[in-house]
Amino acid sequence: MHPTVELRAKQSLTLTPRLQQSVRLLQLSSMEFAQELRQALDTNPFLEFDDGQSAEETDTQDEAGLDAAAGEDPATSAEFGETASALANDAITDTASHDLAPDGQDVPAEVIADALADTDERDGAAAGDFPADPYAQRSTRHDGEDNDPTEWIHAKATLRDHLHEALRMCAMPDRDAIAAQLIIEALDDDGYLRQSLDELAKLVTLDPPMTEDDLHVALTLVQRLDAPGLAARSLSECLSLQLQALPSDTEGRDIALQIVNHHLDRMARRELAELQRQLGCPADQIRIACALVRKLDPRPGDAFGRDENNYIVPDVIVRSIKNRWVVQINPAVQPRTRIHRMYAEMFAQCGATSRSPLAQQLQEARWLIRNAQQRFTTIQRVAECIVAHQKAFFEYGEIALKPMVLRDVAEELGLHESTVSRATGNKYMATPRGIFEFKHFFPRELSTESGGTCSSAAVRALLKEMIDAEDVASPLSDVTLAKLLADQGVIVARRTVAKYRRLMKVPPAEMRRQLQAS
């Protein structure tokens, strides 16, 4: 066999760069999409924030500069009047026709003209408008200064704020105050001190150096500043501090102190007989002491304000208008951006080749605007299909949620199932019943005794109703719950009931009985 060279013709499907970007943008969450847009605005000179000015104001401010830069009559500026709604209409149909050519090929000359046509002056309320800041709208005072609405938001006082405020009320030497402040700053959000005093002593430079004994004195002071249990180094110490703060005549206090200091693990395992043997106390006193311990707060820092990480921003909003459920894209997640008209015109006049890096950036800017609009269009179509299928849920709640799969939406909208999966991943819907992930509306199907079907979400809703209505003295076991569901025509196994119960974070029947007894 000798090496030979031969030519073969074959066909293959590949994703163009623009289609790859479109797919990637679709699967991003609202937060990730906002970050992607900010990065593009920082790196692409042909993209700029749309400040929300009306078309008349923008034309009045920029007309002279644009005409001078372009060397054209003002009447020619009409070619830049293509609206964002027109972009939305042809965003899907001409996706492939304007893709960037591979390396080594010229970018078509009409790319520049199309990109310039995308630099429309919008009215500010069109469907294609993208706000500059996805999560805040800036207003202006009459004196011309920017007014940040977050300046008027009431901020919760955190645990450290409470302790620093209480520390200022105590008279002490500066050295002790520094040690106490160091302890406060080292506390976790739940109120525990998890760093050793030896490590903290090395963080501050004083003359003479701060010792572990100095910090131990400061720790004792901080533990007495506010709510008992703060600045504890273990769960046992936290509960002990709270018990010590109770009146000395509190029933079961002394036995409870012995339990939390030496036998906390036995109490957790409910070894009451062993506790009775170790402490030499009657069973009634052991139960009273255990009940007292259970009333204590194992995380005292949670009672104070904490920084809330509310990162879920709904992508769509569902409202009932005239007995119709209407789906609207959340304006807060629509970034407002546009192509910089002046830079685009200057580039068109400079005579640069269509293969230059600037031509590539201009094409990428145009892609981003079109793909962003296509992303929101797809999300809205999927959301409208979900609302149409699950209309009963919005009217009656979880018990009316119907089984549905991604294939149902894909077939109805004429999309691929993977596209629907990307459009529903990490997307959220704000409804009158709360904020739900799109995936919440795709419960799996369960069969019924009559031959019909119901959703797993409806079964969980039935289980919750049964557990809420049960006799607290005699909770329903998983076997009993399965039988009650069978009486209503829903056939599920006991292990399925147990799985749904765990998903609802409901303890087993025996534990519910013990919790009620305690």
Automatic annotation (TrEMBL):
GO terms for molecular function: DNA binding; DNA-binding transcription activator activity; nucleotidyltransferase activity; sigma factor activity. Keywords: DNA-binding, DNA-directed RNA polymerase, Nucleotidyltransferase, Sigma factor, Transcription, Transcription regulation, Transferase. Residues 358-514 form the RNA polymerase sigma factor 54 DNA-binding domain. Residues 122-149 are annotated as: Disordered. The keyword Cell cycle does not apply. Residues 125-136 have a biased composition (Low complexity). One of its GO terms (biological process) is DNA-templated transcription initiation. Residues 151-343 form the RNA polymerase sigma factor 54 core-binding domain. GO terms for cellular component: DNA-directed RNA polymerase complex. NCBIfam families: PRK05932.1-2, PRK12469.1, rpoN_sigma. Sigma factors are initiation factors that promote the attachment of RNA polymerase to specific initiation sites and are then released. This is RNA polymerase sigma-54 factor. It comes from Pararobbsia silviterrae. The lineage of its organism: Bacteria, Pseudomonadati, Pseudomonadota, Betaproteobacteria, Burkholderiales.
